[in-house]
């Protein structure tokens, strides 16, 4: 295979992978909405709501060889089985709050694990694969950015619980369905603008290249041990 063809094929595979991930997220969102409207009190709705989330987290833990993540998923699967066997829950509102929290806790956990001593921060590992020249300043910045995203995910959980406990359900619904995606986009775009204003020397890369680096990192990273 010629050198000119290989990168093109890799880029195409990354693009298809990104499209598949986006389609899976959209399908999961539609499933959650359908359950909320048509099967909110069904016992199996709890499994349908949390099963795909746990499967995705466990798959990432397996791919990245993270035994702590796999152990946490096993414990949650056991808890999920107990809840379904007991007939589900009476208040499905709590389940949707827990679903929202679970997604963000899983993301925060994934970012946070890579900040342990001896580990490579997640965004640092991705950046090393897409930048031809990786400077100490970029290493420090990507470590800070990994920490920022981890704190963001955990902060979203705290805000979610506060709104659920202190405000009407309609407010939490707006927060979950409208403000949550807007907040993620705002942080992503704001960081992108700030990065190239404060560090114009940093090499620019595409989102597709970053996604390809993420897939490569999952396939090649060494086991992540405490």
Average residue-wise pLDDT: 76
Shape: globular
Structural class: mainly alpha
Number of helices: 8
Approximate helicity band: over 70%
The N- to C-terminal Cα distance equals 40 Å
Uncertain runs: 1-14, 218-226
| Strand segment tally | 0
Largest sheet: none
Whole-number total of structural domains: 1
In short:
With 226 residues, the protein is mainly alpha-helical.
What does this structure look like?
The chain is mainly α and 226 residues long. It has one domain (5-220). The chain is 80% helix and 0% strand. The chain contains eight helices and no strands. It is globular, with a radius of gyration of 19 Å. Mean pLDDT is 76; it is low at 1-14 and 218-226.
Feature tags:
226 residues; mainly alpha; 8 helices; disordered C terminus; disordered N terminus; globular
Secondary-structure map:
Elements: H1 5-38, H2 43-63, H3 67-85, H4 92-113, H5 122-130, H6 136-166, H7 169-198, H8 207-220
């Amino acid at each position: 295979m010629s050198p000119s063809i290989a990168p093109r094929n890799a880029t195409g595979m990354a693009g298809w992978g990104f499209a598949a991930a986006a389609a899976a997220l959209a399908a999961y969102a539609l499933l959650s909405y359908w359950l909320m409207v048509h099967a909110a009190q069904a016992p199996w709705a709890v499994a349908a709501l949390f099963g795909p989330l746990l499967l995705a987290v466990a798959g990432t833990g397996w791919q990245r060889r993270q035994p702590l993540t796999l152990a946490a998923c096993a414990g949650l699967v056991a808890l999920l089985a107990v809840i379904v066997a007991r007939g589900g829950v009476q208040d499905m509102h709590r389940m949707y709050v827990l679903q929202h929290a679970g997604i963000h806790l899983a993301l925060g956990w994934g970012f946070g694990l890579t900040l342990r001593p001896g580990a490579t921060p997640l965004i640092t590992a991705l950046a090393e694969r897409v930048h031809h020249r990786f400077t100490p300043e970029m290493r420090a910045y990507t470590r800070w950015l990994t920490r920022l995203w981890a704190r963001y995910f955990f902060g979203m959980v705290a805000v979610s619980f506060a709104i659920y406990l202190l405000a009407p359900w309609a407010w939490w619904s707006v927060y979950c369905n409208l403000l949550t995606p807007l907040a993620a986009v705002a942080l992503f775009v704001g960081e992108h603008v700030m990065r190239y204003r404060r560090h114009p020397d940093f090499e620019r890369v595409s989102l597709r290249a970053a996604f390809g680096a993420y897939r490569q990192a999952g396939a090649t990273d060494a086991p992540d041990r405490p």
